[in-house]
Specification:
The protein is of the alpha/beta class. The protein folds into 3 domains: about 230 residues, FAD/NAD(P)-binding domain (3-Layer(bba) Sandwich), CATH 3.50.50; about 120 residues, FAD/NAD(P)-binding domain (3-Layer(bba) Sandwich), CATH 3.50.50; about 80 residues, FAD/NAD-linked reductase, C-terminal dimerisation domain (Enolase-like, domain 1, 2-Layer Sandwich), CATH 3.30.390.30. The chain is about 20% helix and about 30% strand. It contains 11 helices and 28 strands. Strand 26 and strand 27 form a beta hairpin. Helix 2 runs parallel beside helix 9. It is globular. Bound molecules: flavin-adenine dinucleotide.
Amino acid sequence: MHLLCHASKPGNRAVGAITGTIMAQNGIGCARGWCSTWVEGPVFNSYASTMVDHVLIVGAGQAATHAAETLRRKGHTGRITLLGDEPDLPYQRPPLSKKYLAGDLERDRLLLRHRPYYEEHRIDVRLDTRVAQIDRANCTVQTADGASFPYEVLVLATGSRPRRLQLPGADLAGVHYLRDLSDTERLRAEIRPGAHAVVIGGGYIGLETAATLRHLGVEVTVLEMASRTMNRVVAETVSRFYEAEHARHGVNIELDARITALAGDAQGHVRAVVGTDGREWRADLVVVGIGVLPNDELAQAAGLSCDNGIVVDEFCRTSDAAIYAIGDCSNHPSLHYGRRVRLESVDNAVEQANTTVANILGTPTRHDRVPWFWSDQYHHKLLIVGLSQDHDRQVLRGRPTDAAFSVCYLRDGELIAIDTVNQARDQMAARKLIAARMRPDPVKLADASLALKDCV
Ligand SMILES: Cc1cc2nc3c(=O)[nH]c(=O)nc-3n(C[C@H](O)[C@H](O)[C@H](O)COP(=O)(O)OP(=O)(O)OC[C@H]3O[C@@H](n4cnc5c(N)ncnc54)[C@H](O)[C@@H]3O)c2cc1C
């Protein structure tokens, strides 16, 4: 049992003033001693000392596993249960489009932890266990096979799923999505040198997959509907650098591409992707990477506030004070940027898990982070820090022709984000400068011979 002593009460501005912005309901909440009467507007939750024994985590991916590990590491002695619907022990997803797809990483090395770790740390991991319902009144969850698990604190870490292609032929054999280990293994089984692949979507997943397929000798075409790749997340200079690199490796990237159907052969296997202008791209296999959707249906059905993900407050708490939501499935307020975001990255999964554990263990902690993300394509490392939307100025550091450069984003003179290509040094410094809301000198910024930290 672990003694929880939540200190939030009227007068405690550190917590009380920021807990009440979420709409919620009255009288539901499980951790003993919590007063979970929530209304719209400032609310001061009062927590008595609370003994929490059982933390139940739904999902067994990156966020869930980190939450469980951190709970133990930080001294939670009560029960921890992870319910995951996949057949494998929790694993890392990033290699699924990179080294694991390429065959350069053994399956075992994907695992976040091996079986003995969970046993030694008394983390009860139930695989192949899909949670079908949350009964908030009785603080239990029901699984698809009819089992019931009680909780005192519930953490939803259900992740996201690929957006499906809605076109004729989208269900033909040979059409792939990449989310789970089994998706990558199915794709790998179809890869043959000289085969023709069409990747639909020029975002990270699509481009990483294209690079890996090319490395394996596949003839690859990427179809991107926008006028540049990764257009939502990187500067145009970065898009153009990667488009040139893909072209140099023999990948055919088609921008402004509009498709209307996938055509199949007599056996029901894909054979081409068809454009709106009637053009056909030969496809022995197709990989679709057109974004993801949050797995928030379970929360919606339980009456939790959801809007492009499960809505949480600064403490990662949902509209039910006994339930947290973390990782890809959660929509949280970014204190740094002053708006709500739903992020899909390992960093976000890990850091939201850290915040949640601190709150469960009685240290009221606001989630206040500058996010970062990485992507590996060929031998290039793209690192992005911060959120660049709303910038009013870009400054280029270094030259794309040297394959080592950064794009800094400023808003009213403040550094708000950076894209770095093969410039890890800039990325580390930028994390500090952005968090501290520094206003670097744009002229110095443009001088790549100066260290980023010396530009302020
Ligand atoms: C191919 C690929 C490459 C990526 N590359 C990068 C990268 O380079 N850098 C980076 O930062 N991020 C990358 N990501 C994103 C990163 O992996 C995710 O952001 C991260 O895994 C999110 O963690 P999560 O715990 O929120 O979700 P997940 O890791 O997806 O875990 C959620 C788990 O919950 C399970 N689940 C869902 N509903 C239920 C239910 N009702 N009952 C039980 N279980 C349920 C799911 O099946 C899943 O196992 C990549 C993702 C993919 C797919």
